[in-house]
Amino acid sequence: MTTQTTAPKKTGAPAPGDASGLIGIPAGLGRALATGGGVLTVVSTFLAWTWTAEFPGDLTVYGYPGGLQVLVLIAGALTALFGLASYGVKGLGWLAPAGADAALKFAALAAFATTWYTVLAISTKLGGVVNLEPGGYIAAAVTLVAFLGALALPFERPEPDPFDPDDTGWDQFKHTSSQNWQTVRAAFASKEPRPLRALPSYVEILVIVATLAVALLVFTYGIGTEYDELFIGFLIVAGFGFTALHRSGLIVHVTEITARHQNITVCGGFIAAACFPFTQSDDQYATLGVYILIFATVALGLNIVVGLAGLLDLGYVAFLGVGAYAASMVSGSPSSPFDLHLPFWAAVLVGAAASLVFGVLIGAPTLRLRGDYLAIVTLGFGEIFRITANNLDGTSGPDVTNGSNGISSIPDLKILGFDLGVSHDMGGFTLGRFANYFLLMLIITAVVVLVFRRSGDSRIGRAWVAIREDETAALAMGINGFRVKLIAFAVGASLAGLAGTVQAHVTYTVTPEQYLFAGTTPPNSAFLLAAVVLGGMGTIAGPLIGAALLFLIPNKLQFLDDYQLLAFGLALVLLMRFRPEGLIANRRRKLEFHEEDEAPAVLSKTGA
C-alpha cells in the first residue's frame, strides 16, 4: 500500500509562486497607503499627543516634535522615502538597490511599533487613553494604515511542502504553522542588490565620512537618552530601521565601499569616536563611553582566543583583574603593599606583563585539553583568582590585595604632565575626567585593533583559524597546536591586562567582586563571551558593537531590576535562533549557519 502525499489546498488562497501580498488589498492601493501613511506620520509628529507635561518628553507642543515624537518622525520619513523609491522616483534609486518593498515593510513596522508603544505608554503612565490629544489618535491611525498597506505589497510565495493525509491533527497543525512562517519570512525577504557601479574615490570617501557621521549621531543620541521610554523607543527604531536599510541593499553597498578603503574606514572610525567627548556638555555620558571602551577592548582580546583560535575561555575576566591589580600596586595607592609610584607607561607594562605571565602559567598545563574540558578549567581559574584575591588580606593569607576591601585611592594618571583627573579646556570645549580617560582608552583600543588585524593576517593567525576549524587536521598538516594555542592565550591575556591598567585608575578602587563569572553589571566572563558571540566571532567590529550594546542596554534598562538577566537571556535566545552568526558576521561563519546562501568566490585568511 502506498501513502499519498498531497499539497494543502485552501480555497481562495494565492497559488504558490504568485506575487501577492499578505493581506487582500490591491498592491497599488497598498503602496499608496504605505507611502501616504509615512508622509502623514511625519505630519502627525508636529501635533500634540497628550495634554499634560507629566509624560516625559513634553508631547504637548504643536509644531515642535519632542521625545518619542522625534523617533516616530524618523521612522515615518524612512517609510515615505522607501515608498517613493518603490515608485521609481528619480534620484532615490540609490536608496534601495535591492528593491524597496521589503525595506518599506520594516520602516512601516518601525513607525507603527514606536507610535503604538508611545500611545500605550502614555495611557499606562497617565491613567487611560483619555489623556491622548487628537495628534496621538491620528498618529496611531496613520501608522496602522501605513503598515497594513505595506503588508499588501506583492511578494513571491514559497512552494508548499506536501503533507501526509494520515498525519495526526497536531502534525498537520505544525506543518501548517511552519508553512505560514515561511510565507511571512518570504514577505519580508529582499532580492539580491544590484551591483555597485564604479564611483570616483573621493565620492566613496565622502560616503564613508557620511556613514561614520550618522553612526556617531546614532550612538550619541542613544547614550544620551534620559528616560526609559525614550531608550526603548530608540531600540525599536534603531533595530527595525537598520533592518530596513539592510533589506534595501544600502548597507551592502556601503559595506562594499568600506571594504575597498579599509584603512580609511578604520582611521575614520577612531576619529569619529574621538569626537564623542566634544559632543557632550558634561562628564555624565563620557563615563558610559569610557566603560564601554574598556569592556569592548577586553572583548576584542577575548575574540582572539574564542573567535580566531576557537578556545572557549569562561574565566577571561580574571586576566582583566590581574592587570588591574598589578597596575594598582605600582601606581602609588596607599593600600598597596609596595611603596611604588611608577609612571603610566611602566604601570601599563607591569599590568600587561602580569596578565601575560598568568596566561602562560594557566595555559601551559591546560591547553592540551579541548572543548568542554578546557572551558571548565578556565572557569575554575576565574573563580580561583577571585577567591585568592579575596583571601590575601593578611588574615587568611599574606596581605597583598587587602582582601574584600581591595586596593583603593588609586591616583589619577599623569602623562607627560597632563593630569587626566582634572578638567582641561581644549579648543573651546571642556574635557572632564572621564572624557580624558575616554581618549586614552581610545588609543589603547586602537592598539588592540592593530594587534588583532596584524596577528589575524599573519602566519600565526592562519594557524589559529586552522586550529579553530579542525584541530586534528591542523595537527596532521604540521601545525604545533599547543604552541599556537598558548600564543593565542598569552596575547589575549596581555590585551586584557592592558585594559585593566586603565580600569584601575578610572574606578579608583580594585576589588575581587568586580571580576565575577556572571552578574548584572559587565564586565564579567559571561558578558564578555556574549559580546563576542553577539557581535560576531572572528571580526573586529563585531565585539566592539556587541560590547557597546551589552553595556549600554543594561545601564539604560535599570527599571527592570531583577528581570534584567531574564530579558538578557531571552534576547540572546532570539538572536541565536534568527542570527546565530552574530550581528557582524564574516562570510565563512554566515555560510556555516545558512547553507542555502551562495558560497563566496574568495575567502580571506580569517574567512571574512
TrEMBL record:
<dbReference type="InterPro" id="IPR043428">
    <property type="entry name" value="LivM-like"/>
</dbReference>
<feature type="transmembrane region" description="Helical">
    <location>
        <begin position="314"/>
        <end position="332"/>
    </location>
</feature>
<feature type="transmembrane region" description="Helical">
    <location>
        <begin position="262"/>
        <end position="279"/>
    </location>
</feature>
<keyword id="KW-1133">Transmembrane helix</keyword>
<keyword id="KW-0812">Transmembrane</keyword>
<dbReference type="Pfam" id="PF02653">
    <property type="entry name" value="BPD_transp_2"/>
</dbReference>
<feature type="transmembrane region" description="Helical">
    <location>
        <begin position="135"/>
        <end position="155"/>
    </location>
</feature>
<feature type="transmembrane region" description="Helical">
    <location>
        <begin position="32"/>
        <end position="51"/>
    </location>
</feature>
<dbReference type="InterPro" id="IPR001851">
    <property type="entry name" value="ABC_transp_permease"/>
</dbReference>
<feature type="transmembrane region" description="Helical">
    <location>
        <begin position="526"/>
        <end position="551"/>
    </location>
</feature>
<feature type="transmembrane region" description="Helical">
    <location>
        <begin position="486"/>
        <end position="506"/>
    </location>
</feature>
<feature type="transmembrane region" description="Helical">
    <location>
        <begin position="230"/>
        <end position="250"/>
    </location>
</feature>
<feature type="transmembrane region" description="Helical">
    <location>
        <begin position="201"/>
        <end position="224"/>
    </location>
</feature>
<feature type="transmembrane region" description="Helical">
    <location>
        <begin position="371"/>
        <end position="389"/>
    </location>
</feature>
<feature type="transmembrane region" description="Helical">
    <location>
        <begin position="102"/>
        <end position="123"/>
    </location>
</feature>
<feature type="transmembrane region" description="Helical">
    <location>
        <begin position="285"/>
        <end position="307"/>
    </location>
</feature>
<protein>
    <submittedName>
        <fullName>Branched-chain amino acid ABC transporter permease</fullName>
    </submittedName>
</protein>
<feature type="transmembrane region" description="Helical">
    <location>
        <begin position="71"/>
        <end position="90"/>
    </location>
</feature>
<feature type="transmembrane region" description="Helical">
    <location>
        <begin position="434"/>
        <end position="452"/>
    </location>
</feature>
<keyword id="KW-0472">Membrane</keyword>
<feature type="transmembrane region" description="Helical">
    <location>
        <begin position="344"/>
        <end position="364"/>
    </location>
</feature>
<keyword id="KW-1003">Cell membrane</keyword>
